[in-house]
Amino acid sequence: MMTRGFSRRGFFEAVAAVGAAGVARGQGVAARKMTMDLVCGNLGVRADLPTAMALAHKHGFESVAPDAGHFAKLADGQLAELLEDLKAKKLAWGAAALAVDFRGDDGAFRAGMAELPAFAAALQRAGATRVGTWIRPGDDRMTYVANFRRHAARLREVAKVLGDHGVRLGLEYVGPKSAWSSSRHPFIHTLAEVRDLIAEIGRDDVGVVLDAWHWYTAGETADDLRGLTNRDVVACDLNDAPASVPVDQQRDGVRELPSATGVIDLKAFLSTLAAIGYDGPVRAEPFNATLRTLPADEAVAAAARAMKRSFALLG
What we know:
Elements: H1 8-19, E1 35-38, H2 49-58, E2 63-64, H3 68-73, H4 76-88, E3 92-93, E4 96-97, H5 106-126, E5 130-134, E6 138-139, H6 144-163, E7 168-172, H7 177-180, E8 185-186, H8 191-201, E9 206-211, H9 212-217, H10 222-225, E10 233-238, H11 266-275, E11 281-284, H12 296-311
Parallel strand pairs: 1-2, 1-11, 2-3, 4-5, 5-7, 7-9, 9-10, 10-11
Antiparallel strand pairs: 6-8
């Protein structure tokens, strides 16, 4: 187990335990279609796209987060070389992060929308087809209904621009009670609620970003996931929760590497995703202070061992 105050030595001991099974890339998981995805920023690692691709290849990842800003800087020949390198490393694109502030005032939203076509075109040019973002689980001024209407209207605009470029939009709910109960007006914080929002948006290129942490803190089970199809899921995050902390007291910014504690039932979570044929990226998102102190290569290696251990739960 690794907690916020864990020593560096303790962290490496925990990582060694995670990797003890010696799970090789792909071993025992032939039936799965989802990819082990690297998002360096989730681990506290700063890396440009070529560096991220090199780290992903070295440590056995199968996809990597696309970077629209990097794509936009490349001439056609340079992009072709990048895509050849991606192919040579047997990597695919995961999901990019949405670069539009739809949660704040109208000025910020409109500024983001003005830049969105170029962002979407850069992704399309490189063959990346997935974008994700998260929904703030509360507001101190807007009621649930007013907030719901604004989210539906704004995200419908976002989805149209992305969809015109062949890019799907994923929406992530934030589950911890410590997050949604801190606002005057709690907002979307369950899978059922985010699916209501998606239905209101009314586009078949909008789906969910699933997160094992939010699934767990929302009190959900595999049954809640079984109503989804592969098309409903755009991206997925994997993590574990600190032990000895009641679920309603878990805090969003304090997590563990996947399969570090066993608090979250990742076998049920991943098995259900495999059963629906999910074929998108699954990335570690531990938000862990100790992990963020490590050199880039060590942090990525630790995440890779944790992810391989988790995928091995599929049998």
